[in-house]
Design a protein that fits this description.
The protein is α+β, with helices and mostly antiparallel strands. Helix content is 32%, strand content 30%. The two termini are 57 Å apart.
Length: 385
Protein backbone atom coordinates (compact mmCIF):
# COMPACT_ATOMS: atom_id res chain seq x y z
CA UNK A 1 0.00 0.00 0.00
CA UNK A 2 1.24 3.52 -0.77
CA UNK A 3 2.00 5.62 2.31
CA UNK A 4 1.80 9.37 2.74
CA UNK A 5 5.12 11.21 2.88
CA UNK A 6 5.72 12.98 6.18
CA UNK A 7 8.58 13.46 8.58
CA UNK A 8 7.46 10.68 10.90
CA UNK A 9 6.78 7.98 8.29
CA UNK A 10 9.98 8.72 6.33
CA UNK A 11 12.39 9.36 9.22
CA UNK A 12 14.31 6.07 8.98
CA UNK A 13 15.03 6.65 5.29
CA UNK A 14 15.72 10.39 5.19
CA UNK A 15 13.91 13.68 5.60
CA UNK A 16 11.21 15.78 3.96
CA UNK A 17 12.23 19.22 2.71
CA UNK A 18 10.19 22.37 3.14
CA UNK A 19 7.08 22.52 0.98
CA UNK A 20 7.70 26.16 0.03
CA UNK A 21 7.75 26.70 -3.74
CA UNK A 22 11.44 27.67 -3.96
CA UNK A 23 12.42 24.53 -2.02
CA UNK A 24 11.67 22.45 -5.12
CA UNK A 25 14.74 23.88 -6.89
CA UNK A 26 17.17 20.97 -6.49
CA UNK A 27 20.11 23.00 -7.86
CA UNK A 28 20.21 24.72 -4.46
CA UNK A 29 21.17 21.42 -2.84
CA UNK A 30 24.78 21.69 -3.96
CA UNK A 31 24.42 19.00 -6.58
CA UNK A 32 23.61 18.91 -10.27
CA UNK A 33 20.00 17.85 -10.87
CA UNK A 34 18.58 16.06 -13.88
CA UNK A 35 15.23 14.69 -15.03
CA UNK A 36 14.64 10.94 -15.10
CA UNK A 37 11.87 9.25 -17.09
CA UNK A 38 10.00 6.42 -15.38
CA UNK A 39 8.03 3.65 -17.03
CA UNK A 40 5.74 0.87 -15.93
CA UNK A 41 8.22 -2.01 -16.45
CA UNK A 42 11.22 -3.11 -14.37
CA UNK A 43 12.88 -0.31 -12.42
CA UNK A 44 16.50 0.13 -11.35
CA UNK A 45 17.36 -0.35 -7.69
CA UNK A 46 19.94 2.10 -6.34
CA UNK A 47 21.94 2.29 -3.15
CA UNK A 48 22.71 5.89 -2.30
CA UNK A 49 26.42 6.70 -1.69
CA UNK A 50 25.68 10.19 -0.41
CA UNK A 51 22.53 12.18 0.09
CA UNK A 52 20.01 12.04 -2.77
CA UNK A 53 17.23 14.57 -3.38
CA UNK A 54 14.15 13.56 -5.36
CA UNK A 55 10.92 15.32 -6.32
CA UNK A 56 8.17 14.60 -8.81
CA UNK A 57 8.25 16.40 -12.15
CA UNK A 58 5.20 15.16 -14.08
CA UNK A 59 2.32 12.73 -13.61
CA UNK A 60 2.28 10.41 -10.58
CA UNK A 61 5.39 8.70 -9.20
CA UNK A 62 6.13 6.26 -6.39
CA UNK A 63 9.31 6.17 -4.29
CA UNK A 64 10.07 2.77 -2.74
CA UNK A 65 12.77 2.68 -0.02
CA UNK A 66 14.42 -0.01 2.08
CA UNK A 67 17.17 -0.16 4.70
CA UNK A 68 18.19 -3.72 3.79
CA UNK A 69 17.24 -4.13 0.12
CA UNK A 70 14.57 -6.70 1.00
CA UNK A 71 11.52 -5.07 2.58
CA UNK A 72 10.37 -1.92 0.80
CA UNK A 73 7.98 0.77 1.92
CA UNK A 74 6.17 2.70 -0.81
CA UNK A 75 5.51 6.45 -0.77
CA UNK A 76 3.52 8.72 -3.05
CA UNK A 77 6.13 11.22 -4.26
CA UNK A 78 4.46 14.60 -3.80
CA UNK A 79 7.20 16.38 -1.81
CA UNK A 80 10.95 16.96 -2.04
CA UNK A 81 12.72 14.20 -0.13
CA UNK A 82 16.31 13.77 0.94
CA UNK A 83 17.32 10.09 1.02
CA UNK A 84 20.00 9.08 3.56
CA UNK A 85 23.30 7.54 2.39
CA UNK A 86 23.22 3.75 2.34
CA UNK A 87 19.47 3.53 1.62
CA UNK A 88 18.14 1.28 -1.14
CA UNK A 89 15.52 2.94 -3.32
CA UNK A 90 13.69 2.63 -6.59
CA UNK A 91 11.41 4.97 -8.52
CA UNK A 92 8.45 3.96 -10.65
CA UNK A 93 5.51 5.47 -12.46
CA UNK A 94 2.23 4.98 -10.67
CA UNK A 95 0.52 4.15 -13.94
CA UNK A 96 2.01 4.37 -17.44
CA UNK A 97 4.80 6.97 -17.36
CA UNK A 98 6.08 9.90 -15.31
CA UNK A 99 9.20 11.99 -14.79
CA UNK A 100 11.07 12.93 -11.62
CA UNK A 101 13.86 15.39 -10.85
CA UNK A 102 16.82 13.92 -8.97
CA UNK A 103 20.08 15.28 -7.56
CA UNK A 104 22.82 13.33 -5.80
CA UNK A 105 26.00 14.18 -3.87
CA UNK A 106 27.74 11.04 -5.16
CA UNK A 107 27.08 8.99 -8.30
CA UNK A 108 24.29 6.49 -7.82
CA UNK A 109 25.16 2.82 -7.49
CA UNK A 110 22.72 0.55 -9.31
CA UNK A 111 22.52 -2.76 -7.47
CA UNK A 112 19.81 -4.51 -9.47
CA UNK A 113 16.32 -4.21 -10.88
CA UNK A 114 12.90 -4.84 -9.47
CA UNK A 115 9.62 -5.65 -11.21
CA UNK A 116 6.69 -3.31 -11.05
CA UNK A 117 5.44 -3.37 -7.47
CA UNK A 118 1.79 -4.29 -7.23
CA UNK A 119 2.10 -4.61 -3.45
CA UNK A 120 1.40 -0.92 -2.98
CA UNK A 121 -2.04 -1.31 -4.49
CA UNK A 122 -4.77 -2.42 -2.13
CA UNK A 123 -6.44 -5.55 -3.47
CA UNK A 124 -9.30 -7.69 -2.25
CA UNK A 125 -8.34 -10.93 -0.61
CA UNK A 126 -11.95 -12.10 -0.83
CA UNK A 127 -13.94 -10.78 -3.78
CA UNK A 128 -17.70 -11.42 -3.81
CA UNK A 129 -18.89 -10.49 -7.29
CA UNK A 130 -22.57 -11.50 -7.17
CA UNK A 131 -25.38 -12.49 -4.82
CA UNK A 132 -28.01 -14.77 -6.34
CA UNK A 133 -30.44 -15.51 -3.52
CA UNK A 134 -31.11 -13.97 -0.12
CA UNK A 135 -33.78 -15.90 1.81
CA UNK A 136 -34.94 -15.59 5.41
CA UNK A 137 -36.58 -18.89 6.39
CA UNK A 138 -39.01 -19.28 9.28
CA UNK A 139 -39.42 -23.02 9.66
CA UNK A 140 -41.86 -25.10 11.66
CA UNK A 141 -40.79 -27.73 14.17
CA UNK A 142 -39.16 -30.78 12.65
CA UNK A 143 -38.86 -29.33 9.12
CA UNK A 144 -36.73 -31.11 6.51
CA UNK A 145 -35.06 -29.50 3.51
CA UNK A 146 -34.20 -32.51 1.32
CA UNK A 147 -31.00 -31.07 -0.06
CA UNK A 148 -29.41 -29.64 -3.20
CA UNK A 149 -26.09 -28.86 -4.88
CA UNK A 150 -25.43 -25.80 -7.05
CA UNK A 151 -22.61 -23.79 -8.59
CA UNK A 152 -22.62 -20.75 -6.24
CA UNK A 153 -21.32 -20.77 -2.69
CA UNK A 154 -24.01 -20.78 -0.01
CA UNK A 155 -24.00 -19.36 3.50
CA UNK A 156 -26.47 -20.43 6.20
CA UNK A 157 -26.83 -18.44 9.44
CA UNK A 158 -29.13 -19.44 12.31
CA UNK A 159 -31.00 -16.46 13.71
CA UNK A 160 -33.22 -18.39 16.11
CA UNK A 161 -33.50 -21.97 17.35
CA UNK A 162 -31.22 -24.62 15.86
CA UNK A 163 -30.88 -26.71 12.71
CA UNK A 164 -28.85 -29.68 11.51
CA UNK A 165 -26.51 -28.94 8.61
CA UNK A 166 -25.50 -32.00 6.60
CA UNK A 167 -22.78 -31.91 3.91
CA UNK A 168 -20.32 -34.59 2.76
CA UNK A 169 -21.70 -36.98 5.38
CA UNK A 170 -21.00 -34.53 8.21
CA UNK A 171 -23.95 -33.60 10.42
CA UNK A 172 -23.41 -30.40 12.43
CA UNK A 173 -25.87 -28.75 14.79
CA UNK A 174 -26.02 -25.01 14.20
CA UNK A 175 -27.43 -23.04 17.12
CA UNK A 176 -28.43 -19.40 17.31
CA UNK A 177 -25.51 -17.27 16.10
CA UNK A 178 -23.81 -20.11 14.18
CA UNK A 179 -22.88 -19.97 10.51
CA UNK A 180 -21.68 -22.39 7.82
CA UNK A 181 -20.49 -21.89 4.21
CA UNK A 182 -20.96 -24.60 1.55
CA UNK A 183 -18.61 -24.95 -1.42
CA UNK A 184 -19.76 -24.85 -5.07
CA UNK A 185 -21.49 -28.09 -6.10
CA UNK A 186 -21.34 -29.44 -2.54
CA UNK A 187 -24.54 -31.32 -1.74
CA UNK A 188 -26.08 -30.10 1.49
CA UNK A 189 -29.34 -30.34 3.41
CA UNK A 190 -30.86 -28.91 6.60
CA UNK A 191 -33.41 -30.23 9.06
CA UNK A 192 -34.63 -29.59 12.61
CA UNK A 193 -35.37 -31.92 15.47
CA UNK A 194 -39.05 -32.76 15.91
CA UNK A 195 -39.51 -30.40 18.87
CA UNK A 196 -37.41 -27.50 17.51
CA UNK A 197 -38.40 -24.65 15.21
CA UNK A 198 -35.86 -22.38 13.56
CA UNK A 199 -35.38 -19.15 11.67
CA UNK A 200 -32.30 -18.93 9.49
CA UNK A 201 -30.82 -16.97 6.61
CA UNK A 202 -29.39 -18.48 3.41
CA UNK A 203 -27.37 -16.53 0.84
CA UNK A 204 -25.95 -17.92 -2.41
CA UNK A 205 -23.11 -15.97 -4.01
CA UNK A 206 -20.04 -15.99 -6.26
CA UNK A 207 -16.62 -15.77 -4.60
CA UNK A 208 -13.82 -14.98 -7.04
CA UNK A 209 -10.09 -15.58 -6.68
CA UNK A 210 -8.41 -17.76 -4.08
CA UNK A 211 -10.34 -18.37 -0.90
CA UNK A 212 -9.25 -20.08 2.32
CA UNK A 213 -10.33 -23.71 2.50
CA UNK A 214 -10.94 -23.39 6.24
CA UNK A 215 -13.97 -21.25 5.38
CA UNK A 216 -15.93 -24.22 4.01
CA UNK A 217 -18.26 -26.65 5.81
CA UNK A 218 -17.19 -25.50 9.27
CA UNK A 219 -19.33 -24.20 12.08
CA UNK A 220 -18.49 -20.64 13.03
CA UNK A 221 -20.02 -18.86 15.99
CA UNK A 222 -19.89 -15.34 14.69
CA UNK A 223 -18.52 -12.51 16.87
CA UNK A 224 -20.75 -9.60 17.78
CA UNK A 225 -18.73 -7.41 15.40
CA UNK A 226 -20.11 -9.53 12.54
CA UNK A 227 -23.71 -9.38 13.77
CA UNK A 228 -23.86 -5.76 12.63
CA UNK A 229 -23.07 -6.83 9.05
CA UNK A 230 -25.95 -9.31 9.14
CA UNK A 231 -28.32 -6.67 10.49
CA UNK A 232 -27.26 -4.27 7.75
CA UNK A 233 -27.93 -6.92 5.11
CA UNK A 234 -31.44 -7.56 6.41
CA UNK A 235 -32.15 -3.82 6.47
CA UNK A 236 -30.88 -3.34 2.92
CA UNK A 237 -32.87 -6.32 1.66
CA UNK A 238 -36.02 -4.76 3.06
CA UNK A 239 -35.11 -1.31 1.73
CA UNK A 240 -33.90 -2.27 -1.77
CA UNK A 241 -33.13 1.12 -3.32
CA UNK A 242 -30.58 1.78 -6.09
CA UNK A 243 -27.61 1.25 -3.75
CA UNK A 244 -28.86 -1.73 -1.75
CA UNK A 245 -27.37 -4.46 -3.96
CA UNK A 246 -23.88 -2.95 -3.65
CA UNK A 247 -24.30 -2.58 0.10
CA UNK A 248 -25.49 -6.20 0.39
CA UNK A 249 -22.32 -7.41 -1.33
CA UNK A 250 -20.11 -5.16 0.82
CA UNK A 251 -21.79 -6.33 4.03
CA UNK A 252 -21.45 -10.02 3.06
CA UNK A 253 -17.79 -9.48 2.30
CA UNK A 254 -17.33 -7.73 5.65
CA UNK A 255 -19.10 -10.60 7.42
CA UNK A 256 -16.85 -13.30 5.94
CA UNK A 257 -13.67 -11.31 6.56
CA UNK A 258 -14.64 -10.68 10.17
CA UNK A 259 -15.35 -14.37 10.73
CA UNK A 260 -12.03 -15.41 9.17
CA UNK A 261 -10.06 -12.82 11.12
CA UNK A 262 -11.63 -14.03 14.36
CA UNK A 263 -10.54 -17.60 13.58
CA UNK A 264 -6.95 -16.69 12.68
CA UNK A 265 -6.41 -14.21 15.51
CA UNK A 266 -3.75 -15.41 17.97
CA UNK A 267 -6.16 -14.62 20.78
CA UNK A 268 -8.64 -17.20 19.48
CA UNK A 269 -6.26 -20.06 20.29
CA UNK A 270 -5.91 -19.12 23.95
CA UNK A 271 -7.82 -20.92 26.67
CA UNK A 272 -10.95 -19.14 27.79
CA UNK A 273 -10.33 -17.32 31.06
CA UNK A 274 -12.73 -15.93 33.64
CA UNK A 275 -12.33 -12.51 32.08
CA UNK A 276 -13.18 -13.90 28.64
CA UNK A 277 -16.37 -15.49 29.99
CA UNK A 278 -17.41 -12.08 31.27
CA UNK A 279 -16.50 -10.30 28.05
CA UNK A 280 -18.97 -8.16 26.17
CA UNK A 281 -19.68 -10.85 23.57
CA UNK A 282 -20.41 -13.46 26.21
CA UNK A 283 -22.74 -11.17 28.16
CA UNK A 284 -24.72 -10.34 25.03
CA UNK A 285 -24.88 -13.98 23.95
CA UNK A 286 -26.15 -15.08 27.37
CA UNK A 287 -28.76 -12.32 27.30
CA UNK A 288 -29.93 -13.39 23.84
CA UNK A 289 -30.19 -17.01 24.89
CA UNK A 290 -32.18 -16.08 28.01
CA UNK A 291 -34.58 -13.93 25.97
CA UNK A 292 -35.12 -16.73 23.43
CA UNK A 293 -35.74 -19.32 26.15
CA UNK A 294 -38.22 -17.09 28.01
CA UNK A 295 -39.83 -15.31 25.07
CA UNK A 296 -43.37 -16.20 26.23
CA UNK A 297 -42.78 -14.69 29.65
CA UNK A 298 -42.87 -11.06 30.74
CA UNK A 299 -39.38 -9.77 29.98
CA UNK A 300 -37.92 -6.50 31.22
CA UNK A 301 -34.45 -5.06 30.84
CA UNK A 302 -33.76 -5.24 34.61
CA UNK A 303 -34.84 -8.91 34.62
CA UNK A 304 -32.54 -9.85 31.73
CA UNK A 305 -29.68 -7.80 33.18
CA UNK A 306 -30.06 -9.53 36.54
CA UNK A 307 -29.88 -12.94 34.84
CA UNK A 308 -26.53 -12.09 33.18
CA UNK A 309 -25.15 -10.37 36.31
CA UNK A 310 -24.82 -6.82 34.99
CA UNK A 311 -26.67 -3.58 35.59
CA UNK A 312 -29.55 -2.55 33.27
CA UNK A 313 -27.60 0.53 32.15
CA UNK A 314 -24.53 -1.56 31.26
CA UNK A 315 -26.61 -4.11 29.36
CA UNK A 316 -28.28 -1.28 27.45
CA UNK A 317 -24.88 0.21 26.61
CA UNK A 318 -23.60 -3.17 25.36
CA UNK A 319 -26.65 -3.77 23.16
CA UNK A 320 -26.47 -0.27 21.67
CA UNK A 321 -22.73 -0.57 21.07
CA UNK A 322 -22.76 -4.04 19.51
CA UNK A 323 -26.26 -4.49 18.08
CA UNK A 324 -27.29 -0.84 17.54
CA UNK A 325 -30.60 -1.41 19.36
CA UNK A 326 -31.73 -1.37 22.97
CA UNK A 327 -32.43 -4.59 24.91
CA UNK A 328 -36.11 -3.62 25.03
CA UNK A 329 -36.27 -3.32 21.24
CA UNK A 330 -34.48 -6.67 20.90
CA UNK A 331 -37.07 -8.32 23.17
CA UNK A 332 -39.86 -6.80 21.08
CA UNK A 333 -38.37 -8.19 17.86
CA UNK A 334 -37.90 -11.67 19.32
CA UNK A 335 -41.50 -11.74 20.57
CA UNK A 336 -42.80 -10.68 17.16
CA UNK A 337 -40.74 -13.39 15.46
CA UNK A 338 -42.19 -15.89 17.94
CA UNK A 339 -45.69 -14.69 17.11
CA UNK A 340 -45.12 -15.62 13.45
CA UNK A 341 -44.21 -19.15 14.51
CA UNK A 342 -47.32 -19.35 16.69
CA UNK A 343 -49.52 -18.11 13.83
CA UNK A 344 -48.07 -20.77 11.52
CA UNK A 345 -48.72 -23.47 14.10
CA UNK A 346 -52.40 -22.38 14.11
CA UNK A 347 -53.08 -23.55 17.67
CA UNK A 348 -54.19 -20.18 19.09
CA UNK A 349 -56.18 -17.19 17.96
CA UNK A 350 -54.65 -13.71 17.95
CA UNK A 351 -55.99 -12.79 21.39
CA UNK A 352 -54.46 -15.93 22.88
CA UNK A 353 -51.14 -15.30 21.11
CA UNK A 354 -51.04 -11.72 22.42
CA UNK A 355 -51.73 -12.93 25.96
CA UNK A 356 -49.14 -15.74 25.72
CA UNK A 357 -46.49 -13.22 24.67
CA UNK A 358 -47.46 -10.86 27.51
CA UNK A 359 -48.91 -8.07 25.34
CA UNK A 360 -51.32 -5.82 27.22
CA UNK A 361 -54.00 -6.07 24.49
CA UNK A 362 -54.45 -7.78 21.15
CA UNK A 363 -54.65 -4.32 19.54
CA UNK A 364 -51.20 -3.47 20.91
CA UNK A 365 -49.86 -6.73 19.52
CA UNK A 366 -51.46 -6.17 16.08
CA UNK A 367 -50.11 -2.63 15.85
CA UNK A 368 -46.54 -3.71 16.64
CA UNK A 369 -46.82 -6.64 14.20
CA UNK A 370 -47.92 -4.28 11.40
CA UNK A 371 -45.17 -1.77 12.23
CA UNK A 372 -42.50 -4.51 12.11
CA UNK A 373 -43.59 -6.63 9.14
CA UNK A 374 -45.75 -4.25 7.09
CA UNK A 375 -48.80 -6.54 7.20
CA UNK A 376 -51.38 -7.39 9.84
CA UNK A 377 -51.44 -10.73 11.71
CA UNK A 378 -54.57 -11.63 9.73
CA UNK A 379 -52.84 -10.96 6.41
CA UNK A 380 -49.82 -12.99 7.50
CA UNK A 381 -52.01 -15.90 8.60
CA UNK A 382 -53.68 -15.99 5.19
CA UNK A 383 -50.29 -16.05 3.46
CA UNK A 384 -49.01 -19.11 5.37
CA UNK A 385 -52.13 -21.27 5.58
Amino acid sequence: MICNLNQLSFQQYGSIDSERVNARNLTQKGAQSHVMELGSLDAAVYRSQGRVWVCNDSNMSVLSVSTDGEDYQHFYLDKVVCINPGTYFTLSAYQDASTIEIAEEEPLEQVGTIGREDKYRIKRRIDISSIYTFFYHEKEKGFIFPGEAHEPFELAYVDKGSIHSVADGKDMILNQGDLVVYAPNQWHMQYADVDVSASYLTISFDLDGEYPQNLLNRKFTIPQSAVFSLQQMLKEYDRMDEYSEDLLICSLQMLLLTVLREQTSPASSKLRTTNAVNSENEIIRRAQQYISAHVREKLTVPLVARHVDVSPSYLTALFRKNLQISPGEYVRRVKLQESKQMIREDNMNFTEIAAALQYSTVHHFSRQFKDKFGITPTEYAKSVR
